[in-house]
Amino acid sequence: xxxxxxxxxxxxxxxxxxxxxxxxxxxxxxxxxxxxxxxxxxxxxxxxxxxxxxxxxxxxxxxxxxxxxxxxxxxxxxxxxxxxxxxxxxxxxxxxxxxxxxxxxxxxxxxxxxxxxxxxxxxxxxxxxxxxxxxxxxxxxxxxxxxxxxxxxxxxxxxxxxxxxxxxxxxxxxxxxxxxxxxxxxxxxxxxxxxxxxxxxxxxxxxxxxxxxxxxxxxxxxxxxxxxxxxxxxxxxxxxxxxxxxxxxxxxxxxxxxxxxxxxxxxxxxxxxxxxxxxxxxxxxxxxxxxxxxxxxxxxxxxxxxxxxxxxxxxxxxxxxxxxxxxxxxxxxxxxxxxxxxxxxxxxxxxxxxxxxxxxxxxxxxxxxxxxxxxxxxxxxxxxxxxxxxxxxxxxxxx
Length: 399
Hints:
Radius of gyration: 22 Å
Strand order of the largest sheet: 6-5-4-7-8
Distance between the termini: 36 Å
Order of helices and strands: HEHHEEEEEHEHEHEEEHHHHHEHHEHH
Strand content: 15-25%
Oligomer: single chain
């Protein structure tokens, strides 16, 4: 029996530190593990050897700085995680292992007016189908990350008011999906998961402070501070769409006037082009037309960029992030939108904060949120189960 402060308990704690560092990063060299954990190179070498012998990690040759090194990742069969993303018009599910490899992924249309029960039914069916297609052992499921387009109350797990999925307000998505799947489910809003996805797999790699801006039917920001998502005590941090730009502007769905969202979200922007382009436009088609040289679409995209830049400037002045990543369909506009964003940041942000900021398009496109859901599941699982070989859950999964 281990006692606090004993040699065995210290060794156990070091094992968990190494496993956690590798689990969150996907793969690290032994030198990177030492820097991340603060352990000595010799201690890391011994621990990696022990974990490799026990089948917890895999070690492969690589190079770092032109020198030979060894890359350490969790064993491909140590367990799997599942990501589920409910979007405005879609449902996307991904299956990944603990080495950050995506094993299967699929998306299908989702009727935005469907009831929550119908949405959960579709998600359960798609998860079961993908798990069966990969042929993985269902007892190896470590957890599920779940994304929804609305605010989640941190304490209760209840989905707050959302005009994107109005029939879902008041539901508890994590509780419902956990009941259906028989495994732990962790839920967050889509902007936070987009930030996690880009942080782990995309344009946010290598930084610890960033803001992920998603512009779609609404406008939200996922905030990463010191490598972790910042949600605030009530779970509503990052509602950048409700920064006031014009007190006499259009009435926003939140009840205020002139919010950033009323100048940038698709529901407000697309009608500006109806007189010249007709109905049926989507933000995706506007971006495509703008890239092809359409002057009206280019003007609208540039205006949206300048408004977003005003919001980003406020973030710079308050939080001083080192990177802003633009997600959603708008990111496909490239410099047509990024240039105006940088222009507004340069005009309205504190000069020192503006100089330190890089503004980039997301690298993951529409996959950012579902990959962020995988990252959420990876970050929330415990390390002791991996070391003890007791990943399987007591309630049979997917029954």
